Amino acid sequence: MNELKTLDDLGTALDPASATPPERLRQRVLAETARDSGRAGFRLPRLTMPSTGRRIAAAGGLAAALTAGVLTTQVVNVGGNPPASTASAAVRILQGAASAARNLPAVVVRGDQFVYAESITTAVGMPQGQGADPGDMTVISQRRQAWFSADGTRDGLIRERAKSGGGAKVIEMPGCRDGVRVQSKGGKTGTQPCEPEAHYRRDLPADADGMLAYLYRAGGGTKNPRDQDAFNAAGDLIREAYLSPPTLAAVFDAVARIPGVTVVGDVKDEAGRTGVAVALTQVQGSRTELIFDARTHAFLGERSTQVRDQDGLTAGQVLDSTAIIKIAIVDRAGQTS
Region Disordered: which residues (predicted)? Predict the structure, then answer.
């Protein structure tokens, strides 16, 4: 069950809106958190084209201890060169990342702990409403801290503040206990049936074949190409989540087998770090990118880039970008180490 959608539904029941938002607005929401059910972690929704209602790119995280300098196996010298689009280079990067992931120390995660995710995100917001000028875009940049219940039963927390500074927006995420989630809004309290959504997944495949099959199943149910949905499912799975070393390695190995995955050279994450991107072009007109350090293969973040002029967007425009600052397992919400 999607926890934040559940909270939205409960909030609407407690404080009904005066009108239903138009479909185009719903499709382009950029400043909320977490959609898609059954996938590890919450994140800012991706920019979505009106033709499909499917998000294009997202912010997010990978796994505890996957910070710059950790992945130290095979090197692909693409940094500093013109952008490359070779499947073989993508495979080498992903295989190197998988090899190093297998050597990461395993973290024993208790059900009463939290996955802490810290990131910097920027996303483009499109104007809404009849007669809106596509050129009147907005840019949302923020620093984000999130605490997700490992077993889904504890109360989580998200803090977001503008990248330029200022006060933080706090989003409470009530846990699901005894099949009930409790939320308060405007002095009113309501309950809703639920199932705990664990943010530390113990049930995921730890081999490439099993993970690849899982990604295609998890990405199903849309009209998009299956390979595109599987690639997006991999990003959803590792975003703002801790995976065991064998499972994390299996994700990298599985992505390396998805047809159409290529390399884009000389990209920057939202923290200004230079890397290379393992990418897949989406039918909606953008390219979804997972960014790695070109030398160490450390995961740096994600980005979405427009590949053709359309809908008020221009080729080469970055639609959203995320830098992963930290992923950790902590004992309580609000703790950062």
Answer: 1-22
Beta strands in the chain (DSSP E): 114-125, 138-149, 156-162, 169-173, 180-185, 188-193, 262-268, 274-281, 286-292, 299-306, 318-330
Dump pLDDT digits (tens) for 191-212.
999 999 999 999 999 999 999 9
User: Cβ(182)–Cβ(191) under 8 Å?
Assistant: yes
Distances (CA, A) of 271 to 66, 119, 155: 16, 9, 29
Rounded Cα distance, 179 and 84, in Å? 50
Q: Which tokens in the block code for residue 120? A: 């910097």
Nearest Cα residue to 248 out of 108, 110, 106: 106
CB burial of 267-276 (b: ≥16 within 10 Å; e: otherwise) equals: bbbbeeeebb
Burial class (CB within 10 angstroms; exposed 0-12, middle 13-18, buried 19+) of 289: buried
- Mean pLDDT lowest among 36-50, 113-127, 154-168, 278-292: 36-50
Q: What is the residue-averaged pLDDT of the chain?
A: 76
Residue with tokens 């802490």: 116
pTM over 0.70: yes
Amino acid identity at 282 = Q
Q: Tell me, what's the pLDDT at 300? A: 86
Coil vs helix vs strand at 211:
helix
Q: Quote the longest CA-to-CA distance of the chain.
A: 58
Average pLDDT over residues 156-174: 92
Instruction: For 217-241, give the DSSP string.
Output: HHT-SSSS-HHHHHHHHHHHHHTT-
Whether the CB-CB separation of 78 and 261 falls below 8 Å is answered with no
For the chain, the domains span 3-330
β-bridge pairing 188-193 and 318-330? unpaired
CA distances from 307 to 126, 132, 140, 160 (A): 17, 23, 21, 29
Average pLDDT over residues 248-254: 95
Q: What are phi and psi of 154, to 5 degrees?
A: -95, 160
- Opening angle at CA 232, ends 49 and 72, nearest 5: 135
